Amino acid sequence: MNTSTGTMMRLTDSGQKLADPADDVRGRRVVDSDGHEIGRVDELLIDAGQRKVRVLRVVHGGLFGVGATPLFIPVEAVERVTDDEVGIAHSRVRIAEAPAYDPELADRDEYFTDLYGYYGYLPYWMPGYVPPARRFFR
After folding, report:
1. Helices (H), strands (E): how many in the chain?
2. DSSP secondary-structure letter at 101?
3. Structural domain for 39, as ranges
4. What are the residue ranges of helices labelled H in 1-138?
C-alpha cells in the first residue's frame, strides 16, 4: 500500500510539458462555485512518478505578485476549464479556510493528506482512488 505522495514537484521545475497544451491553465483566473474570483493559477504540481497534474497552486492577494499568498487546490475540485478561467467546485470561504501550506514543513505528505481530506477527496496515492471523470488533467 502506497501511503506517500512520492515526489510532488512544480511542472516548471520538472522539465516536462503537458501532453495537451490546452491543459496548461497557468495564468488563468480561478473562480469559486459562485463565480467569485479566488486568484490565478500560478503553478501546477505534478507527481513525478506518474507525471500527472495533481494540485493547482493559486496565488491571491498582494500587489503585482509581491506578498501574494499561495493556495493549493487538488485537481479533483476543478469542475470546468475555459480559455480564461478555472472553475472550482467549492465556495471562496471553503477555499480560504483550507489548510495553509508552510514551505518549511518537514512532513509534506501529512499536509497533502490533510488538504485532500479537507476538500473531501481520497488522495491519489491511496488505495481505492478513482481519477476525476472529467478530461481535465488526466
Report:
1. 3, 7
2. P
3. 8-119
4. 11-14, 92-96, 108-119
* Nearest alpha-carbon partner for 10 in 103, 129, 117: 103
Q: 42: Cβ–Cβ under 8 A, 6 or more apart, which residues?
A: 26, 57, 58, 59, 68, 70
In 3D space, the residue among 9, 14, 12, 4 whose CA is nearest the CA of residue 47 turns out to be 9
8-10 and 37-47 beta bridge pairing: antiparallel
Residue 68: how many other CB atoms lie within 10 Å: 16
**Number of domains into which the chain is organized:** 1
Structural domain contains residue 19: yes
All 3 cell numbers of residue 128?
481505492
pTM for the full model? 0.86
Q: Residue 112's domain is classified under what CATH number? A: 3.90.50.10
Strand partners, 46: 9, 53
- Could you read off the pLDDT of 25-83 as tens digits, one per residue? 999 999 999 999 999 999 999 887 888 899 999 998 765 556 678 899 999 999 999 99
